[in-house]
């Protein structure tokens, strides 16, 4: 659980006043790699999520709130942002930024149930139909430009070599305004809320960008189709079948899909190493990057079996 900014009682009271809430409880929420979030329950049993935007400045925080509003207005199932009493999308208190959103009841599971995979694929396909917002978003937010240079300094030289080799295998065409769509960037199980009615909602849009739609599809296949450390072809087929019902992948998109999965793996492995070894050293999590290379190797080995099924 990320609790980088614990909130004192008096700070919470000021925030309740700022947002016009009559609060009964505030409980830290599990999850979140960078920002602290609290589940706020009011005396009349309404629930909200209050996020301390530790990893943002005013510009990026406001852009996130505007993006959430755009998504809700376009019918995307996600958390609705709520302005403070003065109408500001992000509240500032003691040089800290706060975003209030409606709470989405349900569960977030790293291993999404198989029964929800077709719905996940269909939801992902529908996201590519959402029009880009009227304000600027990053274009092609992928592996940082200096990633390979920084990886050369990793203490694990074998992993640095793996990053360099697979970054080349995962190279994708450049993104630009004319060929890009809105992508989430991290559509993993812990960013999907599964409601009691089986419907899915999407959380955590902080890595959103304009990019090729195959970037999101590759990330989702990597994240949702793993079983016991292996690439689960049955899960991948379910997810792809749901996606294809809404938006059948073109031949070109299919050809880019394995490179997109490879790109996702490099991105995940690189950021795990940087976060847990360098930026926020955490011995309990320093092994996590080591899971990525063998899992990607298994995907690449088994990929022809999936491709044959899809092309048949």
From TrEMBL:
InterPro entries noted in UniProt: Aminoglycoside_PTrfase, Kinase-like_dom_sf, Pseudomonas-type_ThrB
Q: Which family does it belong to?
A: Belongs to the pseudomonas-type ThrB family.
Q: What is this protein called?
A: Phosphotransferase
Residue stretches making up the Aminoglycoside phosphotransferase domain: 26-245
> What Pfam families does its record include?
APH (PF01636)
Task: List the top taxonomic levels of the source.
Answer: Bacteria, Bacillati, Actinomycetota, Actinomycetes, Pseudonocardiales
């Amino acid at each position: 659980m990320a609790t980088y900014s614990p909130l004192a009682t008096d700070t919470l009271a000021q925030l309740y006043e700022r947002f016009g809430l009559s609060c009964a409880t505030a409980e830290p929420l599990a999850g979140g790699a960078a920002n602290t979030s609290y589940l706020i329950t009011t005396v009349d049993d309404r629930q909200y999520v209050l996020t301390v935007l530790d990893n943002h400045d005013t510009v990026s925080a406001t852009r996130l709130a505007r993006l959430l509003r755009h998504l809700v207005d376009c019918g995307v199932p996600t958390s609705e942002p709520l302005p403070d009493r003065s109408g500001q999308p992000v509240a500032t208190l003691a040089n800290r930024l706060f975003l209030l959103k409606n709470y989405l009841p349900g569960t977030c599971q790293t291993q999404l149930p198989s029964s929800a995979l077709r719905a996940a694929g269909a939801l992902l396909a529908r996201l590519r139909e959402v029009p880009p917002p009227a304000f600027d978003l990053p274009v092609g937010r992928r592996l940082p430009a200096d990633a390979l240079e920084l990886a050369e300094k990793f203490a694990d030289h074998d992993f640095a070599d793996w990053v360099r080799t697979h970054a080349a295998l995962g190279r994708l065409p450049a993104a630009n305004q004319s060929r890009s769509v809105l992508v989430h960037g991290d559509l993993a199980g812990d960013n999907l809320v599964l409601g009691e009615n089986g419907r899915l909602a999407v959380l955590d849009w902080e890595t959103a960008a304009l990019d090729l739609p195959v970037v999101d599809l590759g990330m989702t296949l990597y994240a949702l189709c793993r079983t016991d450390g292996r690439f689960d072809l049955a899960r991948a087929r379910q997810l792809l079948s749901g996606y294809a019902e809404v938006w059948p992948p073109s031949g070109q998109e299919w050809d880019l899909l394995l490179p997109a999965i490879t790109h996702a793996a490099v991105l995940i492995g690189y950021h795990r190493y940087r976060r847990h070894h360098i930026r926020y050293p955490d011995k309990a999590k320093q092994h996590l990057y080591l899971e990525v290379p063998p899992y990607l190797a298994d995907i690449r080995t088994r990929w022809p079996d999936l491709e044959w099924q899809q092309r048949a």
